[in-house]
Amino acid sequence: MEKATFGAGCFWHLEETLRNSKGVIRTTVGYEGGKIKNPSYEQVCTNKTGHIEVVELDFDPKIISYKKFLEIFWEEHDPASMDRQGPDAGAQYRSVIFYHTEEQKEQAMQSKEAWEKKHKKKIVTKILPAETFYKAEEYHQKYLMKRGLRTCPI
User: Is 10 a catalytic residue?
Assistant: First the structure.
């Protein structure tokens, strides 16, 4: 089993997409990259904590590769948009890949370069070492699935 962590705007949509990928064992939404311990959603939304809404997942690399998750990541949001995805704006919606191994870091950097070249856009996505992950409140977990939705209604 391996772990991956991505931030691509609101964590609800990305979690639903990743959760439905074959080989995913577990998804959890939460916050990473900030400066306070155990932040609440309300604190993160103030843009004062530095946290990013992320999806952390465990997956079986024999079934699905980390490279495949990178493809999904790039396609599921606009990595050229700074601190905004659709109607959601704020620092917590930053595009970020938190890597857990040097191999993930290398693959993420290569995929970012390839995406930039292919789409001829400047990518603002940060590629950073994984930090402390704080699980979001329970009502955020599998939010869309609990409501019978595949995408956000916005």
Answer: yes
